Amino acid sequence: MIKINDAEILAYIGEDLPYFDLTTSLQGIRKNAVLTILPREDVTVSCVDVAAGIARLLDCEAQICVPNSAVAAAKEPIVKISGSYDNVHKAWKLAQICLEYACRIATCARAMNEAAKSVNPKCEILATRKSFPFAKKFCLKAVLEGDCGIHRLNLSDSVLFFKNHIKAYDSYEEFLAQIPTFKAKAPERKIAVECENLDDCEALLRAGADVVQCDKFTPEAVKQAVDLRDKIAPNAALVASGGINLKNVREFAITGADALVTSAMYTQGMADITAVLEIV
């Protein structure tokens, strides 16, 4: 699983704590405290190891109560952070906000995965490249801890031709004729192409595309595309993308698509998580 290293955590800490905590420094409190972070709703836990790492790097101790990928029930402690009053305050919001974002992504990812597999056990939910800017590793970690997969890690990772790539050719037929050449140039990679209608889907299947990505198709059209695939190129993968979310994921999964590509888990806001501080 993806690990956020100490250097990355320290950079995150540095954004919020470049020097010292001015508020607690004014108080001059010389006591210890325990901070319990817990959800107000059921959540799939993600990045609790990062929250614990924040505490450790701020000279606190952390007790992980619910591990990554497990479900924390409402009001069940996820992690407890203990240390000096000043240091616990430094760790407080950094750890809580990390969990709020990660747990929301993981919770949505798991819900979509479970919904899809309830009607099509072979259907995979794949997260797109549309993660938060400057937070890709964090987002991917949360997706994986929510039991979903990744569509494309980056531009160097896989081949996917979009409409804007095809515009470089004089005709669609000219592009289709290049597919065998692409496959020969990248023999260890699958050639994936996005299409926007059934005619292009059929043409791509006949041209030998390894993966056909049906963008913004209705569930009914995806089912027709799956039927075409089964008839023309049964070894090709048929993927649906565009507008797929928790409300309609079952409708798309039941079509028989091999995978559903979505950014929905990145647009759900933050989990409802709170923190309780005790002076000890």
TrEMBL record:
Q: Which GO terms describe its biological process?
A: NAD+ biosynthetic process; quinolinate catabolic process
Q: Which InterPro entries match?
A: Aldolase_TIM, ModD, NadC/ModD, Nicotinate_pribotase-like_C, Quinolinate_PRibosylTase_N_sf, Quinolinate_PRibosylTrfase_C, Quinolinate_PRibosylTrfase_N
* Single GO MF annotation: nicotinate-nucleotide diphosphorylase (carboxylating) activity
- Cell inner membrane in keyword set: no
Q: Return the GO cellular component terms, semicolon-separated.
A: cytoplasm
Quinolinate phosphoribosyl transferase C-terminal domain location is 105-267
Which UniProt keywords are given for this protein, alphabetically ordered? Glycosyltransferase, Transferase
Which intervals hold domain Quinolinate phosphoribosyl transferase N-terminal? 21-103
- Coiled-coil stretches, from where to where? none
**Does this UniProt record's set of keywords contain Cytoplasm?**
no
Q: Its family? A: Belongs to the NadC/ModD family.
Name the PANTHER family for this protein.
NICOTINATE-NUCLEOTIDE PYROPHOSPHORYLASE [CARBOXYLATING], PYROPHOSPHORYLASE MODD-RELATED
Name of the featured protein: Putative pyrophosphorylase ModD
What is the taxonomic lineage of the source species?
Bacteria, Pseudomonadati, Campylobacterota, Epsilonproteobacteria, Campylobacterales
